[in-house]
Design brief:
The structure is a single chain. This protein is mainly alpha-helical. The protein has a domain of about 35 residues. Helix 1 packs across helix 2. The radius of gyration is 15 Å and the shape is globular.
Length: about 70
Amino acid sequence: MNERYLVEHQTRDRVPSDYENLLGDSIEQAYAAGVHDLPGLCAALNDGRTPSPNGMLWTPDLFEQEMKRLGA
């Protein structure tokens, strides 16, 4: 019987970009601060000056589009 194991980043096909790392860190910081809703997350990204893909303010629609584009 094969034992299951987790290989770190086993589904990743490339190293995350600096942008992806920054976005991920910003999302983690928002969650750690108690933000758990999409409008609040977008506000936290904007307050933290986390760059968006188009340079505009984060909105729920933009966040969802970006997560879809990134494959999240």
